[in-house]
Design goal:
alpha/beta, 7-stranded mixed sheet, 9 strands, 42% helix, 19% strand
Length: 213
């Protein structure tokens, strides 16, 4: 029972969400589509931005889906988009240095297990580089990140527990449809915004589920 796969069809785990078959079911995070929305939110946050990068691991199938959807969104928004690869912790600081050299006006942190484990260091380096950064969860904003948009992980785990219960009672995983998120959250940290001398537009504030002052 999965809870954090962005697009199980596109990464090749199943061929159909409604009837996955086999022994896999669970909950999708829609990470590709959500990454496109994150890019749109960054453009609303910084309307003059024309160069937005991403920090992540293209070798992770989930991250690759996010990159593909972000590239498509970037073309529509007329934004130059580049990925700065982080496949191990030691590559994080050089990735920020490369982003600065490229003159990135904002960054997106892609969603994969490694990037999640590097949350504190990523927030620290983004502040040091003075680059506005979009994260994947409210917890990132609570930890000092500027802005975060994504699935509520606690909601996903609670919903997954119901599937585990049904399977333990005899249901076949392949007969249980893979469900999509029912709750997405947008968080903004005004303290971090002030440190970066960024005024959060009203269009973002009215959408925010959490605003940290």
């Amino acid at each position: 029972v999965m809870v954090a796969v962005g697009d199980p069809v596109r990464v090749g785990l199943v061929s159909n969400l409604g009837r996955p078959g086999g022994n896999i079911t669970g909950f999708s995070t829609l990470s590709g589509e959500i990454t496109a929305k994150r890019l749109q939110l960054l453009k609303e946050l910084i309307p003059t931005a024309t160069r937005i990068g991403a920090i992540g691991n293209p070798g992770n199938p989930n991250a690759l889906v996010q990159i593909q959807d972000a590239e498509a969104a970037a073309r529509q928004l007329k934004i130059q988009f580049r990925v700065f690869t982080v496949q191990e912790a030691a590559q994080l600081e050089p990735a920020f240095e490369a982003a600065k050299a490229w003159r990135a006006q904002a960054l997106i942190r892609l969603t994969d297990p490694l990037q999640g484990s590097l949350r504190a260091r990523t927030i620290e380096l983004a502040a040091k580089a003075r680059i506005p950064m979009m994260y994947s969860a409210r917890a990132d904003v609570e930890a000092g990140g500027l802005i975060g948009y994504g699935v509520d992980p606690f909601e996903s785990y609670k919903r997954a527990a119901s599937y585990v219960d049904r399977i333990l009672k005899g249901a076949k995983p392949g007969d249980l449809p893979i469900q999509q998120p029912t709750k997405l959250e947008l968080g903004v940290n005004l303290k971090t915004a002030a440190a970066l001398n960024i005024k959060i537009p009203q269009i973002i504030l009215v959408q925010a589920d959490q605003v940290i002052e």
